[in-house]
Write a structure and sequence with these properties.
The chain contains three helices and seven strands. The chain is α+β, with helices and mostly antiparallel strands. A hairpin with a 6-residue loop joins strand 4 and strand 5. The longest helix is centred in the first third of the chain and has 16 residues.
Length: 136
């Protein structure tokens, strides 16, 4: 397992008329957590795309528990529970400053060859980096 935490502050424009974070922004928060996790391992989407690997999203699920509001400081916990194959599954927990769990979620992405659009294995360098930090 590998886990990271990323903080993000809710901007006014991300809230709806009720003062809650609009539901679709949680998917963007997940993306922030996911890209920052990859960055901790030394990788970015841009590097992979430049090398011919893309990561389309296969599925997304979100379970809303409590609302986030304007100016809340959120912690996005991003978790890899299983070692990636041609697919990589990320779990998420978003909490506010008091530690209250606001939502959970999951995304599954597929490593794909940019030219053929066919699934491929994750880059060896990525798997090696992940092996160095993986906790059993």
């Amino acid at each position: 397992m590998y886990q990271t935490e990323t903080n993000i502050r809710v901007r006014y424009g991300e809230t709806d008329r009720m003062g809650y974070v609009y539901y679709a922004y949680y998917a963007q928060y997940f993306e922030v957590g996911r890209t920052e996790m990859l960055r901790t391992l030394g990788f970015t989407y841009r590097q992979w795309e430049d090398s011919g690997i893309i990561l389309p999203v296969k599925s997304l699920s979100i379970q809303y528990i409590a609302p986030a509001t304007y100016d809340d400081l959120l912690e996005i916990r991003t978790i890899l529970k299983d070692r990636p194959t041609a697919r990589i599954s990320f779990d998420y927990e978003i909490m506010n400053e008091t530690g209250e769990l606001l939502c959970t979620g999951n995304t599954v992405l597929v490593f794909a060859d940019a030219r053929t659009r066919r699934p491929t294995r994750p880059p060896a360098e990525f798997m090696n980096a992940l092996s160095r930090v993986w906790k059993v």
